[in-house]
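User: Can you predict the 3D structure for this chain?
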Amino acid sequence: MALKACGLIIFRRRLIPKVDNTAVEFLLLQASDGIHHWTPPKGHVEPGENELETALRETQEEAGLKASQLTIIEGFRRELNYVARKKPKTVIYWLAELKDHDVEIRLSHEHQAYRWLELDEACQLAEFKEMKAVLQEGYHFLCSTVA
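Assistant: Here is the predicted structure, written as structure tokens:
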């Protein structure tokens, strides 16, 4: 059976006049261990939790962002399936908009850095093709919906 994790692809709108939906930046966190890869906040489902509760809890633990500081974007939920540390893994992501552009990110010990990045930069740091694909899908979903 695959390990299951859930997380949020967090974005904020850049501080420019709101002309369109394309002026967004994504939050990526750099892991403290292993290959120091960059991903959105995510983590394993704990007993008694549903998937979205896991994503929100992990976001608070890893980035210091509370559910009240985020807006979950309706209609976007993506499932990634890949092998991590020689075991199958499933990660489910939702899109979430940060309500306050200037809120402080507070990293846990699991991460050593964070960055707000436009899509191209985020895809370069993400490295894994599945993560790049979900970032691109999230961006295109945002561009196709009305703010």
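The chain is about 25% helix and 40% strand. The chain has a mean pLDDT of 90.
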